[in-house]
Amino acid sequence: MKTNYIIQPTFAVLFLIWILFISLSSCFVSYDPYNPSAPRTTHPAKLPVIEAAKASCFDNYTYDDYMWYFDAWIYYPRRDYEKIVDVYVEIYDGPYIINWFPLYYDQDKYWTSSWIEGIETSLYCGDYYYNYEADFIAVDYQGNFDVLTTIPYY
Q1: Rounded-to-integer distance, Cα 45 and Cα 27, Å
Q2: Interstrand relation of 65-75 and 96-102 (parallel, antiparallel or unpaired)
Q3: Residue 67 placed within a domain
């Protein structure tokens, strides 16, 4: 018995049409490496969302120094706040990062921290020479994150 290994023309045409259909119906997800604040996830409903954030500094008479306060209100689905593993703020002066500070869970959606200016920071309260920007960043256990940028209140 002689076996013929030549592909039939109709099978070859159908195979090429199938390959063309698969390649044209595939999904393409764009990724912009130059936009670090864009969330990169396939489940946007499971992201931590920073609803509001505040960076401020005031004179504290107890320490005889200025205090920096950082507050963030972060929503997470089903109020699973223990799944948020990291909340922090990065302080920029123009394109340069000056300092960063962790925020600590307080209650419900509220995260906060405070720092003594002269001892714990390299910031200067009320000095309008510096153009500070505060980037609040929240990260969950899967690496999903949200970023909110604000200007400190003096």
Answers
A1: 20
A2: unpaired
A3: yes
Terminal-residue alpha carbon distance, the chain? 92
The pTM assigned to this predicted structure is: 0.68
- How many domains, in total, are found in the chain? 1
Q: What is the pLDDT of residues 96-114, one digit of tens each?
A: 899 999 999 998 889 999 9
Structure tokens at 112: 């906060």
Kindly provide the residue ranges of all beta strands, DSSP E only, lying in 4-95, ordered along the sequence. 49-60, 65-75, 84-93
Contact between 74 and 107 (Cβ < 8 Å): no
* Domain membership of residue 106 as a residue range: 48-150
Question: Where does 61-150 show beta strands of DSSP type E?
Answer: 65-75, 84-93, 96-102, 104-107, 110-116, 132-140, 145-150
- pLDDT of the residue at 105: 92
pLDDT above 70 for 11: yes
CATH code of 146's domain: 2.60.40.10
